Amino acid sequence: MTKRSVLNELKASASKSYAIKLKKFFKTKPGTYGEKDVFIGVSVPKIRAIVKRHPNLNQADIESFIHSKIHEQRLMGLIYWERIYSSGDDKTKKTIYNLYLKNIRQINNWDLVDISAHKIIGSYLLLGNKNKLYTLAKSNDLWERRIAIVSTFCFIKKGLFNETFQIASMLLKDKEDLIHKAVGWMLREVGKKDILALEQFLKKYYRVMPRTMLRYAIEKFPEKRRKEYLKGLIQRQADDKVL
Questions:
Q1: Contacts of 130 (CB under 8 A, 6+ apart)
Q2: CB contact set of 4 (below 8 Å; sequence gap of 6+)
Q3: In sequence order, what are the beta bridge partners of 70?
Q4: Distance from C-alpha of 192 to C-alpha of 11, rounded to nearest angstrom
Q5: What is the pLDDT of residue 231?
Q6: Are both 1-107 and 109-243 of the same fold?
Q7: Least confident of 17-31, 89-103, 131-145
Q8: Which of 8, 62, 111, 118 has the fewest CB atoms within 10 Å, i.e. is most exposed?
């Protein structure tokens, strides 16, 4: 199986009309987060199907996908890494983890982060030293900060919330809406596992949270409880204006 065969299938699956939709959805206009991203219009299920049909690509070819200017190729490379990692032994997992970090600058859109971070970075750090997450959370790079919080999804699934709460608290004053959404999403996932743990965190921080982050975090709460949290946030914002 050759790299060319895989790319030919990817190209054959492309849709110009879908590419136009993706460019709008991922904000590729000048000055936006996806400004330099190139889309050819292939859905995630189609990319996964191609990877499944051609599972035995070598690492050099996979890494070349990661460095492509075409979004769908980078996504495909990450799906390859995810599959290799999930079925690999400890040595293989370490290799994929290190390749991910080595090429982290290429993981530069929110879907690329969300499809891979918890399955590779989070999984690898689950039972070990988690300092790398805190380093990423302090990064000046938007996507590295998102990788830090989304990686904790792996821990949440295991009922471990400390890293999610710690990194969420670090990102409370982040300026990026995509970070607000990611943190709120992870907090919401905590709430699905342990609503009391989430409420403890919210009682401490909800008044200083960005509105989007709070809305995502409390999305599954009963309507009355959601309104109570939002009312408290609105009151805090009104008080801040007076001051």
A1: 163
A2: none
A3: 38
A4: 39
A5: 84
A6: yes
A7: 17-31
A8: 8
Question: For 44-53, 163-172, 208-217, 229-238, which range has the lowest pLDDT when averaged over its residues?
Answer: 229-238
pTM check: above 0.90: yes
The model's confidence at residue 236, banded by pLDDT at 50, 70 and 90, is low
| Pairwise CA distance, residues 63 & 86, whole Å | 17
Q: What is the pLDDT of residue 243?
A: 40
Report the candidate in 65, 11, 66 with the shortest Cα–Cα distance to residue 42.
11
Between the CA of residue 227 and those of 193, 198, 199, 218, 221, what are the distances in Å?
Answer: 22, 16, 14, 10, 9
Domain extents in the chain: 1-107, 109-243
Higher-confidence residue of 151 and 236: namely: 151
54 secondary structure, DSSP code: S
CA 99/CA 27 separation, integer angstroms: 27
Local structure of 194: helix, strand or coil: coil
Decide if 150 contacts 184 (C-beta within 8 A): no
Instruction: List the structure tokens of 174.
Output: 């982040």
Please give the C-alpha separations between residue 164 and each of 78, 168, 180, 206, 208, in angstroms, as whole numbers.
23, 6, 13, 15, 17
Q: Could you tell me which residues come within 8 angstroms of residue 204 by beta carbon, excluding any fewer than 6 positions away?
A: none
Q: What top-level class would CATH report for the domain 1-107?
A: mainly alpha
Kindly compute the dihedral angle of the four CA atoms of residues 116, 117, 122, 124, in this order, to the nearest 10 degrees: 60
Q: Look up the CATH number of domain 109-243.
A: 1.25.10.90
Q: What is the pLDDT of residue 83?
A: 97
- Residue of 174, 180, 105 lying closest to 144 (CA atoms): 105
